[in-house]
Amino acid sequence: MEIENLAPIILTLVLVGLVVGVGVLTLDKFGTATKELRTTTSESITIPAQNAIVTLANGNLTKVTSIVNSTGTTLSSANYSINLVTGAINNTDNVSSCGTGDTCLVTYSWTDYNTKTNAAVGAAGAAVGDVSNTWMSLIVTLLALSLILGLMVTSFVMGRK
With a cut of 50, which residues of the chain have pLDDT below it? Predict the structure, then answer.
């Protein structure tokens, strides 16, 4: 092994590192892009005092279809405000159809980012991350030692001729 032979080996290692890095980055982007639109029907909430907040079980809401009291009366959207990101409902107008302490049912749609694809891609990224933490230093050390050993053996063999 001569010093001229080191350049292709180093370039190959850099190329492999780039391919693995781009692959992991691509998987990560696909994983975070996956989402599912879900609908929750008749989630039970207890209406808080006026201008108080109750939070639904899910955030990232796309729309609230209805808030209905126990007798089936729909609460007007003018009587509440919603934070779509957190899923918080603010009781802005304490009305008799769904007042303080009443149990009402909420039907809404929300975006679920916690999908199986996202979990699988996260696990793959974590596994590749473990390679860099656990094995990379050993691989680099062995590679450096083999290069040094190869140069030494080559110099001894060339010295005999």
Answer: none
